[in-house]
Amino acid sequence: MKTGNATVAGQYADAVLELAIKDGGDALADKVLSELGAINKVTRDVPELDLILGHPAIQSVQKREIITSLFSRLVNDLTLRLLELLLDKRRLSLLPQIERQYRESLNVRKNIVGASLVCADKLSDSAIADIKARLTEHLGKRLELEVKVDSSLIGGVVLRLGDQVIDGSLKGKLQSLERVLLSV
Prior knowledge:
By secondary structure, the protein is an alpha+beta fold. The chain has two domains: 4-108, Orthogonal Bundle (Peroxidase, domain 1), CATH 1.10.520; 113-183, no CATH class. The chain is built from seven helices and four strands, in the order αααααβαβββα. The chain has helices spanning 4-45, 47-54, 60-71, 77-88, 95-109, 125-139, 170-183, and strands at 112-119, 142-149, 157-161, 164-167. It has a four-stranded mixed sheet, with helices on both faces. Helix 3 (60-71) runs antiparallel to helix 4. It starts with a helix and ends with a helix. The model has no long low-confidence stretch (mean pLDDT 91).
């Protein structure tokens, strides 16, 4: 179940996605996603900007000027209008959630599944390609696979596919064994 902010972010994301597809198809939809990611990166990397845009004592007109001067030449009109709307509604803080919801909705539209593979050691490119091919075949959808290395797993891998987690790590097996032994 979504929280209030997640629901609102989802509504903004779906509306922007619908407009992007209507105005420019998948190309514009992809561009908007990329721009949302870049804007969120800027606000993460420059905390002063996030502080200024969220500060209640700074007037909306000044915030709009800042947004326009920073992003008007770098993003398309739809993305800029979204920023201005969020500013007017005092919901700029929702931008990271909007990006996440937008990505999920766009992936559903494109029949893409996102997955995360965490492994104890760096896998070869061929091993990653093999895992990706098997998952793609099994799911019947295109797959975006994010691969990370976490040496604390000791050995094996952990696959996260949506809400499903498949823990094939040695650390996970040891923790499971520990729970069983403690429950006796």
